[in-house]
Amino acid sequence: MNKKSSRVCGYPLSIFFIVVNEFCERFSYYGMRAVLVLYFKYFLRWDDDLATSIYHTFVALCYLTPILGAIVADSWLGKFKTIIYLSIVYAIGQVAMAVSAIHDITDTDRDGTPDNMTFHVVLSMVGLFLIALGTGGIKPCVAAFGGDQFSDHQDRQRRTFFSVFYLCINGGSLLSTIITPILRAQDCGIHSQQKCYSLAFGVPAALMLVALVVFIVGSGMYYKAEPQGNIMLDVCKCIGFAIKNRYRHRSNQYPKRQHWMDWAEEKYDKLLIAQIKMVLKVLFLYIPLPMFWTLFDQKGSRWTLQATTMNGYFGSLVIQPDQMQTVNPILILTLVPIMDSVIYPLINKCGLNFTPLKRMTVGMLLAAIAFVCAALVQIEIDKTLPTFPSTSQSQLKLLNMGSETVTIKMPGNDPLNLTAAQVSGQINISVGHPEVRNTISLAKGQRQTLLIPLTITDEWLMTDDITSKPQEGNNAIRFVNGMKTAVNVSIPAANFGLIEPFSYSNYSLIKNGKVTFTLWSGSQSCEYSTDFGFGSSYTFFIPSTLVFGPNCQESITAAEDIKPNSVHMALQIPQYFFITAGEVMFSVTGLEFSYSQAPSNMKAVLQAGWLFTVAIGNFIVLIVAELAKLPKQWAEYVLFASLLVAVCFIFSIMAYFYTYIDPAEIEAQFKKNVNEDDEDNKHKLQKTERFYRKLFSGGTLKQYTA
Ligand SMILES: N[C@@H](Cc1ccccc1)C(=O)N[C@@H](Cc1ccccc1)C(=O)O
């Protein structure tokens, strides 16, 4: 197949299939990634730190495997076959994830929770490994394969292709980060209903299959370059030889060479050595870059977890915490054209030379600002979180179930008057105080409610209250029945069951929005409606004086156990804005810089090197989070911002000393020298031929001259 296959408006038709393939693949990858941390936390029941660690290990793996993909494609299978085979591995991984999230498979007691968690953990880890292998492996191949479809003179078209390619990445990821969180928030199941992670992983699996089919359909139209041998291996061998040779000639008697790579000259081509020098210069500059990715990739972990403690009401629209990530591709789709057509030209007009390395430095600073914003938001959230008792304290709330006012005296507290059906606020009592009457026993580290009965001399009832904020923005609700008869409370989504007189129900989790409870006592019923936000907890008290009728709105008392999330998710927008502006300046520029500074046969090597910095960045999250173990989340954000500022300072010094090169010009220079050498050789050969002709009087010397 040559590069002159069918064309539309000057573009090879084959790139259409490549662009659609990328759109579906990125949909699949980002869609799965958007719900991953919540799947770890709520399905596999891991804590925040483990969920964050495994998430970043996975992301790191996704950016380590490009090296493997580049080697396989360049030295063995070629890009086309590598993409096909690794896409199959990728799709199997996605299907494994979808199956691992079906709770019914091991839910033998049908209570809605998996009974054999090991099965789900193992299957999902296998799935994630296959996905990392697939997505990382094909990453350096697809873009380069797209670039291969253009002829050498089609620079403009190739540039447009790469822009459309980046927009497709963000188009696919935008759609998927909207859709998969919606799917995850649905309830589904065969025997019992659970959050639908299986569908949230199933749709990305289907999209990966579509990506594969689309790529295969275009198969007859592609230009398929033959594998050119393993350039990475050649580079490693050449560097290895230079180091060995330098070591062998370490004595002072050997003259110094300009560059340590020049010690490879004995065995390797000058052009290859020059190309390796160019690559090493850029790779050296890459050393500080992982710190940017350390901050950048926390959007999907820490920031999503932060959003779960926030209020997601946007008018009548409710935004899921994991949907906040969509702000990134939305901003990319708007910021890339704005930067290219307004900001950069404006800076140029002001006479400033905004070089790629300067842009990348500014990108780093913007990411640091984003983390300062995240810290400020976290401080606001922390102010609204309930203070749970320490391990040496108890918290007690009192609820007067009677119809008379009672006065309660507690050690260390002023006497408290509670009118009928009144609930006190939280009272802190030091456990072990000698004056606490042993009629009630307080549990250390617990929140409890003391239910004062209708007749004060009757037995007092103690309940254990919720001790953590309800997860996933749900609200934890329970009822206390102060009536002399049993009451049944239900809503369409939950049944609190029959609550005996002077007793209480368990907490049930309820979603945000308006909820109408129906209370039944025998054949009598009444309704009570209330609005719920995110992450609150309430105890509703049914008083002894309740009269059943069409509604009992006024009679029921609501005691707030935990306040709803009050900090609005919109407050995350500034941090998303800064990190995305940083991405445009850093990532888009960095990709272009890596491409422009790489020698012609090592563009893929530098792309893999660039992606390697992303992998290291994700490992740094693990190390810093593990070593620092800061008690406050906002402090961790400030720590990351400070680290990036420090690294940015080092990078700006390195960038100052970097001189931009034109690899094509340098290569041309070498080729010219080689050609000149060839000319010289040809000359010498012709002279020798003439000499031998004379000697043998006209006989041909083909064998020699060849
Ligand atoms: N802006 C990201 C896509 C994204 C979408 C939703 C949430 C987070 C991110 C993007 O364009 N990614 C590109 C380039 C990239 C960025 C970071 C690390 C490696 C590559 C991509 O190819 O995925």
Query: What count of helical segments does DSSP give?
Result: 16
Q: What integer is the average pLDDT?
A: 85
Number of strands: 21
Into which percent range does the helicity of residues fall? 40-55%
CATH level 1 class label of the largest domain: Mainly Alpha
Bound molecules: the ligand N[C@@H](Cc1ccccc1)C(=O)N[C@@H](Cc1ccccc1)C(=O)O
Runs in which pLDDT lies below 50 for 5 or more consecutive residues are 428-438, 691-706
Alpha-carbon distance between the two ends: 32 Å
Overall number of structural domains: 3
CATH hierarchy: architecture of the largest domain: Up-down Bundle
- The whole-angstrom Rg is 34 Å
**What is the H level of CATH, i.e. the homologous superfamily of the largest domain?**
MFS general substrate transporter like domains
